[in-house]
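ingest -> validate -> predict -> emit
validate: passed (alphabet ok, no gaps, 228 aa)
predict: started
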Amino acid sequence: MNLESSNPKRTAAEKAVEYIQDGMTVGLGTGSTAYWAIQQIGKRVLSGLQIKAVATSVQSENLAKELGIPLIPFSEVEEIDVTIDGADEVDGAWNLVKGGGGALLREKIIASSSKQLIIVVDESKVVDQLGKFHLPVEVVKFAYELTRNKLSALGCEPKLRMMDQQPFTTDNGNYILDCDFKQITRPSECHDAINHIPGVVDNGLFIKMAARVIVGYQDGSVKELKLV
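emit:
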């Protein structure tokens, strides 16, 4: 991870962490922006912040443990007060594309159980229309080629995500198909059509789930977007 290039993300993440208060149950996102949020949460815990946390990935869980952030099992969670996470794209209606880090399913489970989902991004992730970033779709390994064919019929070009010359496997033991739609003009309809395909576990479209979107800029400034 190139930390020098993450300064806008760091600025946005640290702003988001200001919303965390004593006694909260906090969801920890995954990815380069969430990394900075977890780092800042760790500093605040060291300074006396009293929280409990759950993580959206093994990577974030391990980082939280290193920083002394108290983690609790999901069996002890009734509701999550705030989750801080990144996004690969966010449009003016705060619809999101997520899953570049491969944790979209766990991220969506945590987000859907959160009172407030705060999205932190740098300015490059703010778009007029979703679709330039290939949409991640998590699929079961069984007959994934057939699932890929069904996705292709929706008008995209799906490619199996690879890592180290092997298919990338999520923390849940599934594959990810990165789908090039060029443009996603109707995010809600696209989301439902994808999830209707047998073999699809979930996809990286997060429709109207964000409560706040905080953007960091190259000039060092940070601002909260207004909902269009």
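The helical segments are 7-17, 32-46, 58-67, 104-112, 144-152, 187-195.
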